[in-house]
Amino acid sequence: MSAPIDNGFKGSAARNAAARARLLRGLLPALSLALVLAAIAWLNPRAISYFGFSLMLNLAIPIALATIAQMFVIAGNELDLSIGTFVGFVGCVTATWLKDAPLIGVAILAGSIGIYALLGALIHLRNLPSIVVTLGMSFVWQGLAILVLPKPGGKAPDWLLAIMSFKPPLIPFPIIAALLIAAVVHFGLMRTSYGAILRGSGGNPAALRRAGWSLLKTKIVLFALAGLFGVLSGMALIGITTSADANIGNGYTLLAIAGVILGGGEFVGGRVSPIGAVIGALTLALAASPLLTFMHIPPDWQVAANGAILIIVLAARVLISRRER
Amino acid sequence: MADADVIRLNGAEKHFGAANVEVVRLDGAEKYFGAVRALAGVDFHVVSGECVGLVGHNGAGKSTLMHMVAGTLTPDAGTIGVHGNAEAHYSVSRAQQLGIRCVFQELSLCPNLSVAENTRINHAALSGFGWRRRAADLISAKLDEIFPDHGISAWDIVGDLSIGRRQMVEVARAFTVTRDRLDLVILDEPTSSLDAHTAGQLLAFVRRFVAGGGSCILISHVLGEVLRNADRIVVMRDGKVVASDAAGAFDRDRLVTVMGGTEARERTAAQAAAAKPGASPLRVRARPAGQADGKDLVACAGEIIGLAGLAGHGQTDLLLRIFDAAARAKAGIEVTAPVALVAGDRQSDGIFPQWSIAQNIGIRSLARLRNGLLISPRREAELATLWQKKIGIRTPDMDNNIFSLSGGNQQKALFARALGSDAEIVLMDDPMRGVDIGTKLEVYDLVREEAAKGRTFLWYTTETEELDNCDHIYVFKNGRIVANLTRDELTEEKIIQSSFGDAA
Known about the structure:
- Helix content of chain A is 75%, strand content 0%.
- Chain A is built from 16 helices and no strands.
- In chain A, helix 1 runs antiparallel to helix 16 (299-324) and helix 3 crosses helix 13 (252-262).
- Chain A has one domain (29-324).
- Chain B is an alpha/beta fold.
- Chain B has three domains: 3-99 and 182-259, P-loop containing nucleotide triphosphate hydrolases (Rossmann fold), CATH 3.40.50; 112-179, no CATH class; 269-500, Rossmann fold (3-Layer(aba) Sandwich).
- Chain B is 34% helix and 22% strand.
- In chain B, the strands form five sheets. In chain B, strands 6-7-8-3-9-10 form a six-stranded mixed sheet, sandwiched between helices.
- In chain B, helix 7 (196-211) links the parallel strand 7 (184-188) and strand 8.
- The interface between A and B is large, with 38 and 48 residues.
């Protein structure tokens, strides 16, 4: 009656399968990035060079930072629909106050991070849906941005321009920046002891409360971190574009959400991956405009094509992770 | 002093002079949830070096009382004292400092974190450099101590573990010690997801812990467990303590009588062996995925089929495959009638948390409840009321949210969902976990009644007693059927033998 092959203890076999599925899911973002890179290399081999990467990935840094900001919010089972206009607002402040009156500029940016923290507190205390609160805030940020900079213009501070145009030897700056962002956030969220608490607040809030942790505090910290990375994103963006526009960050809301999900994160359950999020942001940045330009898609159609690529990439992710389950 | 309650301490007081020191005491504790009185002036205490068994029906107030001891709820009236000092501002963190831990019935692990990270959540001291390694060592050592050969790695993500293993982690975590002291551990249904082997390991550990001067409160619906392992048993009913006596003063019948409600009934095989139709139509024929020797699980109309064996050995997988096969043909599985599933993990797989009780019951029967394109609220309410009466769901209003019910009543609602549907085959994935004995007996009766009407039940259970209700039992091991017993052949030894038998 004994079967020829024994698969070992059932539980551990199932667990290994689950771990393998998770590993594959973890590799998925890297895989999609490789796919986009391969397509670019095929369409235009000269793009795969120091100069090509510097150019193509230039805008990837602010996108990666905005994606990380969104990731912190998603880690706590919330969603931030205001991150795009917030990045735009920060950009406008950076191109005006931060250059002309640095102290006031810094105070405004610090204050805006404080507002993010307060939003976290409000959402937790009043048990409000974050989508509603942040959707409302997105109009507030947009309005403020227009107040600060009614028409496109302004100028980035010189030190910021200097940082963003830094040309390290061998490896293009955007790649180094992406590695640095991924490493720092990975350490902070995935390796520190409080990072475990932050992720736990998305995984099982009730358990955390019972263990004596303050969910108010975790939510405030997560939203403040989102604000901080939103500020960094806006500054990095202006450092690249050199001047600002109140609508400059509007597309970032969706890009940031897509980047988190593409990077292996999930909307609920505190399952996020900083490294994956950065890779997801890079993939989207590459797929957004360089790939389309090389495919000779006219600019009029690029936005629509962009959306189509987003849907294809995310659908592929869902399909693959479902098959593994 | 609690002279009246001095109980057999298995000699623990000889080693620990402090055996009669009270760890925790509640006097006149009251709690109201809205208009519902959950606790009506309860006096309760635990001394060091004793294991207190706490029994009572679901909704008797056990959980509420334990939440107070653990600091997650504050009493509306009454006082609480720990280690002899009154605590005016008692809270979870205060309870932790004072050495009181609780393993709650609903699992309180974060599924997205590793075992080590989950340990960290309960220990503020696990921080700073090297905390991951320290947390991993701490939990691994405790798992080794309680459940030798547990097969859990500290780096496993909890969501990947089976529910039994999760419970093992949860229990082990409660016994880990870093900075704070550890005097009292509340175990609320600690064995509900464990198989007999690991449950035995846990209870043996509890006895060792108590012999070493620690205290435990053991809540279990498996009365034998309480009778065998508690020093003193406290019985609750309707928010009051109705009996408190040395464990030796109780036996099963007396416990059930004191708990009230359903009178004590020993189910015997003979009693249940009603006349079964000899050649009833085939309902399910299924072969587990890894089965190489051609054994099939066969169920006919009117049969109750038991799936036994250690937890997590492929029983749930087979049930789910049968469920899938009902919708879309699958190789190796034949299903000839509509199927309904009563999930084991009701929080994640069974309940729609935002919905009312009536909606939760009606979801499986929408086709019948429809009126044109819309769901008829009247028919939904009728269905709900019918099953409220039939299965005894205790609520003033079936339109209340499902979470207003106690755990056992939530499970009843899920049974009503399955039994109220057109399903001729009902799959039960260990659904009686953590359900009180009264509810269980009611559901057993109902299952037999429905089976007599021709319904087929496939019943996976980790409690051997429940198998007495089955006509036929398949024992699983490593995802395969290893034994096939009729009711007359069924003994606990046989099952254990098959579960642990030959093939390593």
